[in-house]
Amino acid sequence: xxxxxxxxxxxxxxxxxxxxxxxxxxxxxxxxxxxxxxxxxxxxxxxxxxxxxxxxxxxxxxxxxxxxxxxxxxxxxxxxxxxxxxxxxxxxxxxxxxxxxxxxxxxxxxxxxxxxxxxxxxxxxxxxxxxxxxxxxxxxx
Length: 141
Prior knowledge:
It is a single chain. The protein is mostly beta strands. It has 1 helix and 9 strands, in the order H-E-E-E-E-E-E-E-E-E. It has one helix at residues 2-13, and strands at residues 32-37, 43-44, 48-56, 59-60, 70-77, 94-96, 103-107, 111-120, 136-140. The strands form 2 sheets. Strands 2, 4, 5, 6, 8 and 9 form a 6-stranded mixed sheet that branches. The chain has a 3-stranded antiparallel sheet with strand order 1-3-7, with no helix packed on it. The protein is elongated.
């Protein structure tokens, strides 16, 4: 009978009395994500191009994989600052490569664009410390 009351309380409060951890997924201090191509200042003719992504001191794994020191790439295009405690948005400025891709063909309209890589954990949340590249600027003609 007492077990039934505990279960009822758990159901009523949705388990909210249990400890909840919002800790970000840890990353090694020396982890680094970077652009293999394009590089800062690259001029691209035509708008379609390959982005090649590199990663040091961590591994690439598809979304949902819960292993230490792994994540998957996100490409931020002309994007502002992100919240480091929430999933990276998924829209035209925040491309997700949740299958573990390390390269992708993208198309951008003519003009100057900023690109930045951000590694996300199994739930698309940035690691702690964040594993992000320098912002680069490219020009599409």
